[in-house]
Write a structure and sequence with these properties.
10 helices; single chain; 3 strands; three-stranded mixed β-sheet; 209 residues
């Protein structure tokens, strides 16, 4: 079934993912920074800026953003990310590099949400740019377990009514007709990204119902 990562190893993966994503972003053209992603109206720059907020925003800043959004948490996250995304690309990259090694987190979250965030949004960025970004299987498995058990905050996507079976690491969840493939594909499916998941299923020659 798979084991939850120890906190130290989890943070090491987060650090590696942040650093490698900063490397990817550093080479983008001005046009690529403006590329739409699958995250609503967020462009690549907005998603990248979002990934720095949890570790950079003070509690006072978060409260101010929440007041500005009239108490709507989803609106706060969206609007703050878009505002941060207006910064020059090199500043967004510098902000991302600055949080490598940081253990600060968004309010009311755990290190597991930091891992989930950087893994999934890293895919949002890469796939929008037509690139394949490998996920560390152990990290993706931990993130998939986090989504599967998520109660607080409420999971915004329904769980697939299927038996999910990873083909590249030990992990199985659910009941029903089997969907098998790499853990990256299953994590994207669990986080409401079926088209992104399909790219990984097809790459692996895996089977999705």
């Amino acid at each position: 079934m798979g084991a939850v990562l120890e906190t130290g190893e989890l943070w090491r993966i987060v650090d590696r993912e942040r650093a490698s994503l900063a490397d990817l972003l550093e080479g983008l053209s001005p046009e690529e920074w403006e590329t739409p992603t699958g995250c609503g109206d967020w462009r690549v720059r907005d998603v990248a800026a979002h990934l720095t907020a949890g570790a950079r925003f003070s509690r006072r800043r978060v409260v101010g953003e929440l007041v500005r959004a009239r108490g709507n948490v989803d609106r706060m996250i969206h609007d703050a990310s878009v505002r941060e995304g207006r910064a020059p690309g090199e500043e967004i990259v510098a902000n991302l590099r600055s949080i490598v090694g940081s253990r600060r987190m968004a309010m009311l979250t755990t290190p597991r949400e930091s891992l989930l965030d950087v893994l999934v949004h890293g895919q949002d960025i890469a796939l929008a740019l037509g690139r394949m970004r490998e996920m560390p299987p152990e990290g993706a498995r931990d993130a998939a377990d986090r989504v599967w058990t998520m109660r607080v905050p409420p999971r915004p996507w329904p769980l697939p009514k299927a038996r999910l079976v990873a083909t590249d690491i030990a992990w199985t969840r659910g009941q029903g007709e089997e969907i098998s493939g790499p853990i990256t594909a299953l994590l994207l499916l669990l986080t409401g990204r079926p088209e992104a998941a399909r790219i990984w299923f097809e790459r692996a020659g895996a089977h999705e119902q």
